[in-house]
Amino acid sequence: MTLVAAGPLIAFHEETVAAEPPAAASSVLVSQNFLRQSERQEIVDGEPRDRFVTGEFLTHVVYTAQVVVTNPTSSRRKVSVLLQVPAGAVPVLGGRATRTVPMVLEPYAVKPLEYSFVFPAPGEFAHYPAHVAEGDALVAFVPPVRFTVVDRPARPDGRSWEAVSQEGTDDELLAWLDGHVLDGVDLD
Q: CA-CA distance, 38 to 118, in Å (whole number)?
């Protein structure tokens, strides 16, 4: 490539290249989980707890990926975290389809990252999850997953007020109300 500038110019070049997985256990840890944006937490034994989504994902529902990067060592680490929405999804809430987040992890530090997306259509979709690089080396990654996305769930989620109140039977609704503290539940 040849570039001829008509005046002063600053050029920046960045590329993505294949990287081999780390040969040994990494000293940087990364995890990734998914939450339904409208129901991020549930109360268990009187304590709030993240309500991670497993199994089917629904179309036209906003999901948030929660990525946590941890430095369990006594050394400062300069890393880059690659984040990407699943195939078939569209970024929402100010997100982008793909982004790299540079970060400095102080000793024993934990840093959370989030991005949100929605699936406009049902299907089976691959996901290239969070990858952490230090310099040119891949140091940690979350194993790839596949998403099953449907318009309607095969079974209503019995833990979700939203699902039970809209799709559950009278008995399921009464059982949910009997087993949950209503403080903090949006009954609308």
A: 12
User: pLDDT tens across 155-179, in order?
Assistant: 666 566 666 676 677 777 777 677 6
Q: What span, in angstroms and rounded, lies between the C-alpha atoms of 159 and 111?
A: 29
Q: Where are the alpha helices (DSSP H) in the chain?
A: 161-167, 170-179
pLDDT at 66: 94
List the helix and strand counts (H, then E) for the chain. Answer: 2, 13
The answer on pLDDT for 180 being more than 90 is: no
DSSP three-state, residue 141? strand
* SS3 assignment, position 118: strand
pLDDT for residue 160: 65
Among residues of the chain, what percentage have pLDDT more than 70?
Answer: 81
Cβ contact 177:85 at 8 Å: no
Closest CA to 28 of 75, 83, 65, 66: 75
How far is 102 from 79, CA to CA, in rounded Å? Answer: 6
**Which residues, in sequence order, are bridge partners of residue 58?**
150
**How far, in Å, CA of 30 to CA of 21, rounded?**
14
Query: Pairing state of beta strands 137-141 and 145-150?
Result: unpaired
Query: What does the block give as tokens for 49?
Result: 């707890």
